[in-house]
Amino acid sequence: MTFHPLALIFPALSGEAFAALAADIKANGLHEPITVTDSGQILDGRNRYLACVAVGVEPRYETWDGVGSPLAFVLSRNLHRRHLDESQRAMVAARVANLPHGGDRTKPPIGDLLPVTQDTAAKMLNVGERSVQRARDVLDTATPEMIAAVEQGHVSVSLAARYASQPPETQRDIVAKVIEQDMKPMEAARQVTAETIEARRIAQPTGRYRVIYADPPWQYGNSMPPGSMDARDHYPTMPLADICALPIRHLAEDDAVLFLWTTSPCLADALQVIAAWGFAYKASFVWDKMRPNLGHYNGVRHEFLLVGTRGSCQPDARTLVDSVIVEERTAHSVKPAVFRDIIDALYPHGARVELFARGRAPGCTVGIVGTGGA
User: Fold this and answer.
1) Cystine design at 215: which of 211, 337, 357, 374 (Cβ 3.0–4.6 Å)?
2) Which helix (H) or strand (E) is 324 found in, with range?
3) Alpha-carbon span 42 to 21, nearest angstrom
4) How far from 100 is each of 97, 111, 131, CA to CA, in Å?
5) What does the radius of gyration of the chain's CA atoms come to, in whole angstroms?
């Protein structure tokens, strides 16, 4: 037997659910016949058919009467029979929507169906079109394990879409923690992120440095507005006390300069860190990201690069640099390279170290200090 394309839009039963169905059919027989098309393809009842084959029960068939559309028939049968959450319905809608929003009618239809847009599919499955778009991203880029986790109701489509571009091993590790260790999906994702950073940890730098550039993993607690991305979704954060306690005093020369990234909610914390590390606040740069993020009191489109000094460490070059730099933001926590260029221009001499860095910068020792990473 072959399956009609519409028989594949709903997730297949697996594990205990499939075993229970097979056991019931073996004990009590097949209650509901399997629906086939005139051409003999299974239109509805894929799971019942596979369960019959698994336990050696001869399937019973009925031919679809052709009333209405095959899509409406399949949706009606399955939505009433199965209790799917919003993410699972979004995945079904994404499979139904064989065209992107707006309709590219050059693409072939599903079987004998007319093309269905994402908007139409979203209404059919009673989900938002944005959820369908996320589901399409998951189907296009996520690993089979992540796709199955969403379809089986273990992981939300929004979380899966967020991590669909991550390396396959990262996605598989998240799913494994959710299913095998019964962890909540977000907790699993954060733990995998932390483990990944720990695995590639760079040794704590030694020696003393004249120029220190740091982007600490600030901990925001519950201060982020609803709908905002939490820093913990990208890297492990550190409490303020732990950041202050880092042994930066021992890394700095007697005459040294510190460039410290912070955000508006953590501005007061950053001033404490500057003092705790043995520096005195002197000035700041502002990174204008061009597009705002959601904030509690306003739309936040900037970050601060604070400047502190220890001893006597005015710039080597007397170049007038604008304090406001306009650069579009890219990935989370990635800072524009122009700020490193500014630091190099102001302080071309002396050893330099970059703390909590995402990658290596030419001529700069890179280290991850403590338990965080940015």
Assistant:
1) 374
2) strand 324-326
3) 18
4) 7, 17, 13
5) 28
The token pair at 319 is: 């170049």
Tell me how long the chain is: 374
- Answer for the pair 217, 373: CB distance below 8 angstroms, yes or no: yes
Per-residue confidence (pLDDT) for residue 365, from 0 to 100? 55
284 — pLDDT class (breaks 50, 70, 90): very high
Return the number of other C-beta atoms located less than 10 Å from residue 132's C-beta. Answer: 29
Distance CA 259, CA 281 (A): 10
Judged by DSSP in three states, 353 sits in strand
**φ/ψ of residue 265, rounded to 5:** -65, -25
114 by DSSP, 3-state: which?
A: coil
Task: Tell me if residue 307 falls in helix, strand or coil.
Answer: strand
Q: How far apart are CA 262 and CA 259, in angstroms?
A: 10
- Amino acid identity, position 280: A
pLDDT tens profile 22-51:
999 999 999 999 999 999 999 999 999 999
CB atoms within 10 A of CB 341: 11
Q: What angle do CA 102, 106, 110 make, to 5 degrees?
A: 90
CA–CA distances in Å: residue 328 to residues 231, 254, 269, 337: 19, 36, 25, 12
CA nearest 333: which of 245, 263, 243? 263
In one-letter notation, the amino acid at residue 37 is: T
E strand or H helix that includes residue 293: strand 280-294
Q: Identify the DSSP state of 203.
A: P
Give the pLDDT confidence score for residue 144 in this predicted structure.
94
Beta-bridge partners for 62: 35
DSSP β-bridge partners for residue 211: 257, 352
Report how far apart the first and last C-alpha atoms of the chain are (Å, whole number): 53
DSSP sequence for 332-361: TTPPPTHHHHHHHHH--SS-EEEES-SS--
Tens digits of residue pLDDT in 112-155: 455 788 888 999 999 999 999 999 999 999 999 999 999 999 99
Confirm if 90 and 139 have CB atoms less than 8 A apart: no
Residue 228, Ramachandran bin (φ over 0: left; ψ between -120 and 50: alpha; else beta): beta
What are the residues whose beta carbons fall under 8 Å from the beta carbon of 319, sequence distance 6 or more?
A: 345, 346
d(CA 364, CA 84): 52
